Amino acid sequence: MSTLPTGVAAIADAVAGGKVTATSVIADHLTKSEQIQQDLNAYTLLDHEGALAAAATIDRRIQEGQEVGPLAGVPLALKDLMDHAGYPNTAGSSYPTALSTQNATVVDRLQAAGAVILGRTGLHEYAFGFSSENPWFGPVRNPWNPELSPGGSSGGSAAAVAAGSVAAAIGTDTGGSIRVPAALCGVVGLKVTHGRVSLTGVFPLAPSLDTVGPLARSTNDAALVYEAIAGYDAADAWSAPQPVIGSAALESLRATTIGIPHPWVDLPQNETITAAFVESRVAVESLGAQVIDLALPDLVPSRQIEDVAYPEVALVHEQRWHDRPATYGTEVSHRLEEVFATDPRRYIAAQQWRSLVRNTAEEALRRCDYLMTPAVAANVKPIGEDEIDVAGRRVPYRPPLSRYSALVNQTGLPAIVLPLDRDGVPPPSVQFIGRRWGEHHLLALGSLLEREGISRCRPPTGGNMSPNVHPPA
Number of C-alpha atoms within 13 angstroms, CB side, residue 396? Predict the structure, then answer.
């Protein structure tokens, strides 16, 4: 087993301090990535030559006494939805793809911080779904059990992080596409405030809902990546000129109020999810937090989530669909047929509903510091099955996977999913929703819960992994 550091903070400290070379770290993680690729299909592209060349440049700069950035030599993976100069941006599709001529802003910021991009990760086709079972690249598989889905749409990013092939990865989240795979793979996933991280160079799904953020194996690692990519971008019309505040240590929860939104948290969910959520509530109360139950009847998922998003999805895909409908897979084709058939007049009513939801959530967060929900209603989705078991019933898989995430995108607020230190394949997770521009508070909360042993990202176990999968020590 490798003795090289594996986490974001540990790698950056060791490389910048001259204890290890970036080249050795990157070579080690490329080997791990090749090993997991055989079993998990987490990548659409692995870039040995480019990654090793970038690592060599970092080593040379360190030898010359130059600053190399807070992510020096950290191996990252990039969801195959973002422009990276010289590489194809497939968006998980079969649509003819030219090589990108320039970087997405998030890629520029990662490279400026010293990160090394190992490859591009698999996703649900066009990020329009929650399974990452891709008809063109094959299904991404879950490190906890390769017969299970890692969730979507950022499934490859979550699988690569959970299996230890990279220290962190970048995903996108329009209705839970970072948080759902984080929950199904047992890692940390941060959904940022809409407008916090640039969308320039990111293939859109529904731009007024799209966000970019990190997945990692600890809150501190997620914070380091978040701080490198966050900030205003004048080239992005959705970007907001708000200051980025670094997360500071949260010493206790004694001055913290956490709200439990009803009836949202009471919607059908599996018993293991319910039990873990109840235990989490007790755990944060034991740390001194005041936990209050809030009656928020307007804060529940609705069909109007689709009515908000679908007109935007239609605009993104209208020309592609007209030019090459055969380049779309069956599942996304069926969903796009629904998208194009949606009466645009529903959009106005949906926008009014969205405003109500946003106002309700923000009013609730004036009464408490965070809202707390489960991350998903079920965290096991077998590959190839369109229905899953939820509360004793077989139901279509998308609604229970998105039950606690998609509504958050309608509010624009930030949220974090944290894996709980409990048994399970995968272990259950919990979600905290914060105030607008309050990512630093969410990250500080996550760090405290890790220190207290409530949250922990553990290596995939349980005898379900292939021998080729090598999670971090």
Answer: 7
Q: Which two tokens stand for residue 339?
A: 């998208």
Extract the tokens encoding 354: 């969205």
User: Of 79, 165, 191, 405, which is the active-site residue?
Assistant: 79
> Can you give 386-444 as a three-state secondary structure string?
CEEEECCEEEECHHHHHCCCHHHHHHCCCEEEEEECCCCCCCCEEEEECCCCCHHHHHH
- Alpha carbon distances (Å) from 78 to 82, 155, 212, 420: 7, 11, 11, 25
Q: Which amino acid is located at 238 in the chain?
A: W
**Which CATH class for the 8-451 domain?**
alpha beta
Q: Does the annotation mark 153 as catalytic? A: yes
Q: Are 183 and 376 in contact (CB under 8 A)?
A: yes
What is the residue whose two structure tokens read 């490279």?
111
What span, in angstroms and rounded, lies between the C-alpha atoms of 127 and 134?
10
Residue 2 annotated to the active site? no
Which of the 8 DSSP states describes residue 196?
Answer: S
pLDDT digits (tens, 9 = 90+) for 238-281: 999 999 999 888 999 999 999 999 999 999 999 999 999 999 99
Q: Could you say which DSSP state residue 4 is in?
A: S
In this predicted structure, the answer to whether residue 468 has a pLDDT above a threshold of 80 is: no
pTM of the model: 0.96
With b for 16 or more beta-carbon neighbours within 10 A and e for fewer, the 34-53 pattern comes to ebbbebbbbbbbbbeebbbe
Among candidate residues 153, 280, 402, 405, the one labeled active-site is 153
The one-letter amino acid code at 54 reads: A
> Looking at 93, 131, 149, 177, which residue is catalytic?
177
What Å distances lie between residue 178 and 159, 315, 348, 460, 463, CA to CA? 11, 23, 28, 19, 26
Average pLDDT of the chain is 95
pLDDT (tens digit, 9 = 90+) per residue, 283-334?
999 999 999 999 999 999 999 999 999 999 999 999 999 999 999 999 999 9
Q: How many CA atoms lie within 13 A of 420 on its CB side?
A: 27
- Contact criterion met (CB below 8 Å) for 123 and 155: yes
Burial of 374 (0-12, 13-18, 19+ CB in 10 A): buried
Which pLDDT belongs to residue 243? 96
Strand-pair category, 116-121 with 43-46: antiparallel
Amino acid at 281: R
Q: Is 177 a catalytic residue?
A: yes
